[in-house]
Specification:
Elements: H1 12-22, E1 26-28, E2 35-37, H2 39-58, E3 62-63, E4 69-71, H3 72-75, H4 79-85, E5 90-94, E6 97-99, E7 106-108, E8 113-120, H5 125-135, E9 144-153, E10 167-177, H6 180-200, E11 207-210, E12 222-229, E13 235-245, H7 247-251, E14 255-257, E15 263-265, E16 267-274, H8 276-285, E17 302-307, H9 312-331, E18 336-338, H10 346-355, E19 360-365, H11 366-370, E20 373-378, E21 384-388, H12 392-417, E22 419-421, H13 425-434, E23 438-442, H14 447-457, E24 460-465, E25 473-474, E26 481-482, E27 485-489
Parallel strand pairs: 3-9, 17-18, 17-19, 22-23
Antiparallel strand pairs: 1-2, 4-8, 5-8, 6-7, 9-10, 10-16, 11-12, 11-24, 12-13, 13-16, 14-15, 19-20, 20-21, 23-27, 24-27, 25-26
Helix pairs in contact: 2-6
């Protein structure tokens, strides 16, 4: 099966597509730019979603659901927001079809034109803030901490499975606060929720930072982000958290009376991650044999594969032990499967589970049982070892912890080795072209310089790291004074 996957070194883009398709994560659909998320891919997303949902609720948020359609006039109320999304909006203009009287099939009924066009949500700030004006009157109604799990549509010209599709799944948090300080605290808190999830569950090291004015969310005062590095040296924005100030509150007249009975506009945040995280997992960890999944979010963590011979008694012994082992592991919360389907040979199963990224594979044969051992293979390093049956459950439990840790450390080492400081323009261009990765360099702080660098190199400022130290220097492009380094990269 791995022979059907293009090598990363030979063609990274094709390698990515091959893994997504052949590992059963997603498929192309009849609708251009949209994808079908297959069961294995959706199970992976469900595990991400469930863990994030738990974290949201632990921080006081509640789930709600808002309409898919947004009246066009709503988007006009916040100028920067509409400008940021205008070119990506799908517009509903009619509400009925009819049979073509000339026999041409189904046509749009011209008499069913909507009085006001509806936008298929690219994001939900406008419809949500129009609702919040009815929900918020007093400081007693604050903070309002709402999250929505939903699909959104952004009309993309160039699409790529999981990374950039016309329709995708995500969550979007939308909160309202009495003070600026509370809203900023919320924005930073949710960024840390994302960063912790990425590092502890996805085994994906991320840089926490703030976007430049050019890169921030349309309508936000500040956009915080987590940035990750993929194996080809390109960056991927893995999550964003936005401080919206009072922009949307003023646009939709969302005011509250404070404790002194004074009327003021609320302060807002929004934050989100999407199914793009599945693409990040593929590109950060996988190899030429297929997926490599972190145990904490792998749909299946352990698979037990029997190797039968014609000895019925030996088969029964293997079955009994496998079922006992499976029960023990499940009691410990481990997602395990005993694959005793006799329609496929063991070698085929080994390749299939390797392709799908199952972290641990246990092979049980008659001779193994006689020797009271089982062969245990780990997906991340492909190492195999014979483990005594009486300690197998304990070994597997610890092995999952070790794999999770090893995957994070490997990705962190890769990022560290591919993050370089440069001080001159020539060095900047050379590093981008020859080695890629994150480039830490001085920038003069102007949007004009940022745009010029992007035009010349296709590299963008991924973020201004939150842990940045002040450092006097000169902009790599203009030579103008700079007080700190920023992180550049070519990106998805």
């Amino acid at each position: 099966m791995s022979k059907e996957i293009k090598s990363r070194k030979e063609d990274y883009s094709q390698w990515y597509n091959d893994i997504v398709l052949k590992a059963g994560l997603a498929d192309y659909s009849a609708v251009k730019g949209c994808m079908v998320i297959k069961p294995h891919g959706y199970a992976l997303w469900e595990n991400m979603r469930d863990e994030l949902d738990k974290k949201f609720k632990e921080t006081g948020h509640q789930n709600a659901y808002f309409p898919l359609f947004i009246p066009k006039s709503f988007l006009s109320k916040e100028a920067a927001h509409v400008e940021g999304f205008a070119k990506e909006c799908a517009v509903v203009t009619h509400y009925r079809l009819k049979n073509d009287p000339n026999g041409g099939g189904v046509i749009v009924d011209p008499e069913a034109k909507l009085e006001e066009e509806l936008i298929v949500r690219p994001t939900s700030e406008t419809i949500i803030w129009n609702t919040y004006k009815d929900w918020i009157q007093s400081y007693r109604d604050l903070p309002l901490l709402i999250n929505q799990w939903a699909n959104v549509v952004r009309w993309e010209m160039r699409t790529r499975l999981f990374l950039r599709t016309t329709e995708f799944l995500w969550q979007e948090g939308h909160t309202a606060h009495a003070t600026r300080e509370e809203a900023v605290e919320e924005t930073e808190k949710m960024l840390e929720v994302y960063a912790t999830f990425a590092e502890e569950f996805m085994a994906l090291p991320v840089v926490r930072g703030v976007k430049t004015a050019n890169e921030r969310f349309a309508g936000a005062e500040d956009t915080y982000c987590i940035e990750a590095l993929m194996q080809d040296g390109k960056a991927l924005q893995a999550g964003t958290s936005h401080f919206l100030g009072q922009n949307f509150a003023k646009a939709f007249e969302v005011q509250f009376r404070d404790k002194d009975n004074k009327l003021d506009y609320v302060w807002a945040t929004s934050w989100g991650v999407s199914t793009r995280l599945v693409g990040a997992l593929v590109m950060a960890h996988s190899d030429d044999e297929g997926l490599v999944l972190p145990p904490k979010i792998a749909p299946l963590q352990v698979v037990i594969v029997p190797i039968f011979n014609k000895d019925v008694a030996a088969q029964e012994k293997i079955n009994n032990y496998a079922n006992e082992l499976m029960a023990t592991l499940r009691k410990q919360g481990i997602r395990v499967k005993y694959d005793n389907d006799d329609n496929q040979r063991p070698g085929w199963k080994f390749a299939e589970y390797e392709l799908k990224g199952v972290p641990v594979r246990i092979a049980l044969g008659a001779r193994d049982m006689e020797n009271n051992v089982a062969e245990v293979a780990r997906r991340d390093t492909k190492e195999k070892a014979n483990i005594a049956l009486d300690g197998l459950a304990t070994h597997v439990t610890q092995l999952l912890v070790d794999i999770q840790s090893n995957m994070f450390n490997k990705a962190l080492q890769f990022r560290n080795e591919n993050t370089r400081k440069v001080d001159t323009w020539d060095e900047f261009v050379r590093v981008l072209d020859e080695q890629a990765g994150f480039v830490s360099a001085h920038w003069d702080g102007t949007s004009e310089t940022e745009e010029k660098i992007k035009e010349l190199t296709k590299a963008t400022i991924r973020c201004i790291p939150l842990n940045n130290e002040q450092e006097a220097g000169k902009c790599i492009h203009t030579g103008n004074p700079s007080t700190q380094r920023v992180l550049f990269a070519r990106a998805y």
